[in-house]
């Protein structure tokens, strides 16, 4: 069985390990280059993207991770993980590093203060069995994507959604998957199962 790593420098690592296990995958933490080298897929958790990006550099993981993604390593990022996977971000810190992997522009903390956190049921292309309950916590949204990336989910355009309505919140480009929300917090393992299938296919 393929082994899926969870980058364990900062963020909701435990929740991703549990969701991967719940999805039937073998999961382990990744903190060192040697650990990165032996996984078949990697999850970048939710947390604080600035902090995680600094720690990636400090732990000598940034270049090895970029190299493995270029080699076709399947990677899934939730929230802060999505921010790290963007080629470009809006609202980042000057010293924030991008891992890259998806040709998209992501806006940090996009939903604004008043809706620091909210939940919505989103239709998710490639995930069967009805809408996914999406939990957003100081989440980014995807401002724009290139034609190389596939949009998998958007915030529903309900009357109360305001500016958030229709925003892109899940994207896939090749073997790299990103969601602005946190499926690892809901006990619904379908998104992790989709990622585990991507790892198996790779
Ligand atoms: N706002 C955080 C960031 O910019 C992401 C929040 C999250 O991962 N829940 O990194």
Automatic annotation (TrEMBL):
The keyword Zinc-finger does not apply. L-glutamine binds at residues 47-49, 108, 137-138. The active site is at residues 79, 182, 184. It comes from the Bacteria. InterPro entries: Class_I_gatase-like, PdxT/SNO, PdxT/SNO_CS. It holds the Pfam family SNO. Pathway: Cofactor biosynthesis; pyridoxal 5'-phosphate biosynthesis. Its EC number is 4.3.3.6, 3.5.1.2. Keywords: Glutamine amidotransferase, Hydrolase, Lyase, Pyridoxal phosphate. It catalyses: aldehydo-D-ribose 5-phosphate + D-glyceraldehyde 3-phosphate + L-glutamine = pyridoxal 5'-phosphate + L-glutamate + phosphate + 3 H2O + H(+); L-glutamine + H2O = L-glutamate + NH4(+). GO terms for molecular function: glutaminase activity; pyridoxal 5'-phosphate synthase (glutamine hydrolysing) activity. The keyword Lyase applies. SUPFAM superfamilies: Class I glutamine amidotransferase-like. Belongs to the glutaminase PdxT/SNO family. Catalyzes the hydrolysis of glutamine to glutamate and ammonia as part of the biosynthesis of pyridoxal 5'-phosphate. The resulting ammonia molecule is channeled to the active site of PdxS. In the presence of PdxS, forms a dodecamer of heterodimers. Only shows activity in the heterodimer. This is Pyridoxal 5'-phosphate synthase subunit PdxT. It comes from Actinokineospora guangxiensis.
């Amino acid at each position: 069985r393929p082994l899926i790593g969870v980058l364990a420098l900062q963020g909701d690592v435990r929740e991703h390990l549990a969701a991967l296990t719940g999805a039937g995958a073998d999961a382990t933490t990744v903190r060192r280059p040697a650990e990165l080298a032996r996984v078949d897929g990697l999850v970048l958790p939710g947390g604080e993207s600035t902090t995680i990006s600094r720690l990636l550099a400090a732990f000598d993981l940034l270049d090895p991770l970029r190299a493995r993604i270029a080699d076709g390593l399947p990677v899934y990022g939730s929230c802060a993980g999505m921010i790290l996977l963007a080629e470009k971000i809006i609202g980042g810190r000057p010293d924030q590093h991008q891992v890259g992997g998806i040709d998209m522009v992501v806006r940090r903390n996009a939903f604004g203060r008043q809706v620091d956190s909210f939940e919505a049921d989103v239709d998710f292309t490639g995930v069967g069995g009805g809408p996914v309950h999406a939990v957003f916590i100081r989440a980014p949204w995807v401002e724009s994507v290139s034609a190389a990336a596939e949009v998998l989910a958007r915030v529903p355009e309900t009357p109360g959604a305001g500016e958030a309505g229709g925003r892109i919140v899940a994207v896939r480009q090749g073997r790299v998957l990103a969601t602005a929300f946190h499926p690892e917090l809901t006990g619904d393992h379908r998104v992790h199962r989709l990622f585990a299938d991507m790892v198996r296919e790779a």
